[in-house]
Amino acid sequence: MMYRSLPRQSGIAIVTAVAVAALVAALAGFMAFRHSLWLRQVENQHDLAQARGVARAAIDLSRLTLRDDARQNKVDHAQEAWAIPIPNLPVEQGNAGGKISDLQGRFNLNNLIASNGQVSMLDKEAYERLLKALGLSPETLVPPLLDWLDADSEPRYPGGAEDREYLAGNPPHRAANRPLFDIDELRQVQGYSDEIVARLAPFVSALPQAGTQVNVNFAPPEVLSALLPSLDLASAQALARRRDAKPFSNDSEFKDELSGQVQAEVDPTRLGYESRYFLADVDARFGRVTVAYRAMLERNGDQIPRVVWMRRR
Ligand SMILES: [Ca+2]
Ligand SMILES: [Ca+2]
User: Fold this and answer.
1) SS3 281
2) How far is the CA of 82 from the centre of ligand 1 (A)?
């Protein structure tokens, strides 16, 4: 009987050995996979850190470019060197590129409430004209934005919206009662759908101060026409074409291009030829990782511009 059970036992031993070998092989494979995954993660982290470093260096380069521009002249227009986009250039093991855009040719929505907390009537009327020129409704878009920006919680009538209206919404939130931080914040304001915000975006800004001038060298025709009530859109389009060929340096050059009636509407406190605020968009690729950053820059005199905010886009 004993000799019969021996082959059976050795059979079990062989099966066990094969199973153990298979398990070891599977475990070794799993370990190798985990190890390569870990290595990949380490590489990705390394590439991400490098790409972020390259992106930050590109934003710093934008700041230096704007500082140097301010040292050379006191006028800003689209033909200046800083306004030329930098194509994606090879850097060590990667690529980087970007562009600087002017923000001061746009209508600053934070101008609607002056620094004394009161509505700036000239800016309110200009914003109404801008909305009309864009085919949007001032009646539904102006009162809720004024309520969003003003410090109180009393809704305007008609068409206003404050905490009470927003807390009843889904999801409930409150009115900001302070200047806009960013154009994207408009999506939280009553009446501002994604489509409306996208339509407005090229024409408006949310700068961190009120009472800013519009740089006429960058203003789209719709913004020029909104700021100069007697300048119709067709004349503003013709004016913008002449300006793009030959930018303005001062009031007298600008007024030379306007009719007498429009000349009288040029307010040097609201229109200018310089820019203080800019957007820097940079893209950086390093190894397998690509990052894209956007920063708002504020230039003060010929100092290196400060970063107002910076985020991934
Ligand atoms: Ca300049
Ligand atoms: Ca309010």
Assistant:
1) strand
2) 8
